[in-house]
Design brief:
heterodimer; A: 137 residues; mainly alpha; 71% helix; 0% strand; B: 121 residues; elongated; transmembrane (chain B); membrane (chain B)
């Protein structure tokens, strides 16, 4: 498959779902930061970070070119690591996370979509990878 | 928040979601009739936002007022963005972008309804 097919067809759907999550994570984080930052600054800043990463991932998945492909790879990987790390942390200790982020409990509050989404994203990037990249890696 | 209005939003949102899946199955693109229905749904969302603001300003406060209002406002972005993103691509799957937008409208409106049920509680 050539590089342009990455942003077409099923890639459009991926971008759409990412955009919804970018919106959800960012608006949630902004509300948390404005209304009760003092309660759990770490969790809320993490919330904002996840939102920003979703925005960058959305843009990167929507744009053609090897640079954006690389950015998409990095952000999708970051999300996967983030949702797994925060998932485990919230499982071990509720005390550190008095309020939910999109990644808490492996994204349970969002139907586990935050856990599934980066996996699908990484799969899609792999599937649409230019042929020379595949032979290299 | 009005339960009749949110009920209508959820109903139209679900019908449009199913409709877009049917269009995908039959390898069709969004018709003008569908775009008109989506325009109607967008108007309902606008009325929903206005009613929400008026009732909050009138002193009715759900537990998560800020979240409630941010949902009501964010909802307005979904359908225009979905229709635009769907129309900009000629592939068969692009009609499913409308499904995602409509389904997100349904989920977010249901969540708003849930938040509103804490008023006075």
């Amino acid at each position: 498959m050539d590089e342009t097919s990455r942003t077409s067809g099923p890639g459009r759907l991926l971008v759409a779902v990412y955009a919804v999550f970018a919106l959800a994570a960012c608006s949630r984080a902004i509300v948390q930061l404005i209304t009760r930052f003092d309660e759990a600054p770490v969790a809320y800043l993490l919330s904002l970070l996840s939102g920003v990463v979703y925005v960058i991932a959305t843009l990167a998945l929507a744009r053609p070119g090897p640079l954006w492909r690389r950015v998409a790879l990095i952000t999708c990987t970051f999300e996967l690591v983030g949702v797994l790390a925060i998932g485990v942390l919230t499982l071990i200790d509720d005390g550190d996370f008095p309020d939910e982020t999109v990644w808490s409990n492996f994204g349970q509050g969002y139907l586990f979509i935050p856990l599934i989404l980066p996996v699908i994203g990484l799969y899609w990037l792999r599937r649409t990878a230019p042929a020379d990249r595949l032979t290299q890696g | 928040m009005s339960s009749i209005l949110s009920g209508a939003v959820i109903a139209v949102g679900l019908v449009s979601s199913i409709w877009s899946v049917v269009l995908f199955a039959r390898a069709r693109r969004a018709s003008n009739v569908m775009l008109l229905v989506l325009l109607g749904l967008e108007l309902l969302l606008l009325i929903q936002l206005v009613i929400g603001i008026v009732r909050v300003a009138g002193g009715e406060r759900p537990e998560e007022t800020a979240t409630f209002l941010s949902y009501a406002a964010s909802l307005l972005l979904l359908l225009p963005a979905g229709v635009f993103w769907s129309a900009a691509d000629k592939s068969r799957t692009s009609v499913l972008v409308i499904f995602i937008a409509c389904f997100a409208v349904v989920v977010m409106t249901a969540r708003m309804f849930q938040i509103w049920s804490t008023v006075g509680g």
